[in-house]
Amino acid sequence: GSRPLPPEEEWSTQKYFNMIVKLFHQARERFGDNVHLLHDVHSRLTPIESARLGKLLEPYNLLFLEDASIAENQDSYKTIRQHTTTPLAIGETYNTIWDCKDLIQNQLIDYIRVAATHAGGITALRRIADFASMYNVKTAPHGAPDLSPVCFAAHMHLNIWAPNFGIQEFVGFGNEPSSRIFKHGIEVKDGIAYLSDAPGLGIEFDESVAKEYPYKRSYLPVSRLEDGTVWNW
Ligand SMILES: [Mg+2]
Q1: pTM reported for the whole predicted model
Q2: Helices 47-57 and 13-31, packing angle to 10 deg
Q3: Does 122 reside within a domain?
Q4: CA 226 – ligand 1 centroid, Å
Q5: Domain contains 211
Q6: In terms of residue numbers, what domain contains 57?
């Protein structure tokens, strides 16, 4: 069968810094001061570069800066935190509470973005949310379209429970196969998501329709620096 290679995107930190403040200036001019602005950096900056970015964006009052730097070394967020009051969010790739324990208890982040499908399901997310609430860290579950409506519904139920719920990422339920396979009563109106009263997660899925869509290999894109070096996507 076909094995497509991942699409590639070029990345230049210098060019990014040359445009990012102008971008947020224009966004505030166009949309005003009363909308929440969030920015996902996809871990493309080093901690000291993230610190600089956070400082530069303070006048634009972000709800949060997402995945500014990789935090495999959780202490590295101290560098960012020491320099900026821009709120920080991370966690969409985390698998357990241990990936974010130090970030939370040292109050190095403001939003924890773990997903039910990666970080151990509803029970584990509830534990992380409770732990985070002790340190003024809010929840902001991941909501990429590759997470199914089942995962989204799990997040919705957690969001309704969590006293420290922050915001839910939502970019739609993706494509036509998804809307044919999954039946759910979730509605999103004017920026607010509503659950149905259906029992359980409130989701049904049709395996016979799913069989019409056999697995196809696909990849997330790959970033490269201008000299060809592979970089964080
Ligand atoms: Mg993200």
Answers
A1: 0.94
A2: 20
A3: yes
A4: 23
A5: no
A6: 8-147+162-171+222-231
- Whether residue 148 has pLDDT greater than 90: no
What is the whole-number distance in angstroms between the Cα of residue 142 and the centre of ligand 1? Answer: 7
208 C-alpha to ligand 1 centroid (Å):
32
Report the separation in Å between the CA atom of 145 and the middle of ligand 1, taken as the mean of its atom positions.
11
- Domain tally, the chain: 1
Centre of ligand 1 from the C-alpha of residue 27, in Å: 19
Structure tokens at 101: 């324990």
Instruction: Flag whether pLDDT at 75 surpasses 80.
Output: yes
CA 233, CA 227: separation in Å to the nearest integer?
A: 16
Looking up residue 85, the CATH number of its domain turns out to be 3.20.20.120
pLDDT > 70? residue 43:
yes
- State the distance from the centre of ligand 1 to the C-alpha of 43, rounded, in angstroms: 9
Residue 177 counted as domain residue = no
| pLDDT value, residue 40 | 97
Give the bridge partners for 38, in sequence order: 64
| Ligand 1 midpoint to CA 143 (Å) | 8
- Helix locations, 110-217, DSSP H: 121-133, 149-161, 176-181, 207-210
